[in-house]
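Translate sequence into structure tokens.
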Amino acid sequence: LSQMLGRVSEADSAKVNIYTSIFGMIQMACILMAPLIGIVLDWNTKPKKPKGAEEELLDDTCARKGSTASACSINTTLNKQRQQQKIKLQKIGNVMKAFTLTNVLMIFFGITVLIPNLELQILTFLLHTLIRGFIHSTVGAMYAVMYHHSHFGTLTGLQSLISAVFACLQYPIFTIINGPLNEDPFWMNVGLLVLTFFNFGLPAYLFLYIKRLKAEPEITKPKTSVVSVDLPKNLSQKTLMTTIKEDELDNDDVFLA
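Result follows.
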């Protein structure tokens, strides 16, 4: 940072100190900027609960059609599963939008770094702070939506490992800038800006993934089996539940006796 500011300010140490302090203060504002990406990630993901009048209408509809309690329960479960599927698609779509927004900010960051204007670097500092908060929040949200919660620790550790490997590239980059590039990082920054465009591959994949999920047939049968069982006097409820477990029902199945 000091080297970049010194090059832009023509080695004015006073300006370098001032802008370095500004950079530090803006970095502290990261905690205030992080909730902004949360708005994108949580957009329209709360399940819509039917109002009291709508619930009464559903009950009346079942009564008029002469539906049994089991049939109404199946229909209710089916509607819940459809709603959960819509919410999951919405969450994946929000992650896609969050990654796209973060990548756009990274493009602007790469452009402002190339412009040798000292005042403009304040915008660069702001973009850097936004990107830091956005990228970690978005990656964590993607893990929560796309993977089972038991894999969260493994994915986080793998992410840290890959980040550390790429962080090791800073030293050879610094050596190249001070050597062949004669302390001018312009072309190195151009190369990094070009590589930034490859980040749009992930939002593109998520877009295709959502499109594929929407193309799948809609849920027409709930994953819940509602069964009425008359227990013999010599068969306890505990014995019945043990028998059900031995049948190895699917994880998504719910057995109501």
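Note: The beta strands are 224-226, 254-256.
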